[in-house]
Amino acid sequence: MDYKVFCLVAIALIVGSISSASVQAESTKEQCSVERLARVSCGYSGITPDECTKKGCCFDNTIYDAIWCFNPRVIPAEDQCSVGRLARVNCGYSGITPDECTKEGCCYDNTIQDAIWCFNPRVIPDC
Description:
- By secondary structure, this protein is of the alpha+beta class.
- It has two domains: 2-70, Spasmolytic Protein, domain 1 (Irregular), CATH 4.10.110; 78-119, Spasmolytic Protein, domain 1.
- The protein contains three helices and four strands, in the order ααββαββ.
- The longest helix has 18 residues, at 2-19.
- It is elongated, with a radius of gyration of 16 Å.
- Residues 1-20 form the signal peptide.
- One of its GO terms (cellular component) is extracellular space.
- One of its GO terms (biological process) is maintenance of gastrointestinal epithelium.
- It is found in: Secreted.
């Protein structure tokens, strides 16, 4: 559980630094499908949908007690998902579908026998 919290904080910091750029592409629906408790604030109380999305953030006010302006979910790049069989850290559960796995920000690969299919992406340092 602590590892997932660490990953969420790391993702929030990465997305936060990306969203501070002056020009942002609009986040996709997939990137904005973030569970209520996993949302990391990207704005301030009373921010408008337009102000929020101009910052590169997601806006969803359909859930009463959730953060409405929040950082989009980072979808792992393909090279982050090239993780060897023994290095994979489980990110799902038995029977998870590829869509459910990637919605969690995880990688899905069922081509290696006796390996974890839904796993955490490899962290690639920026240095």
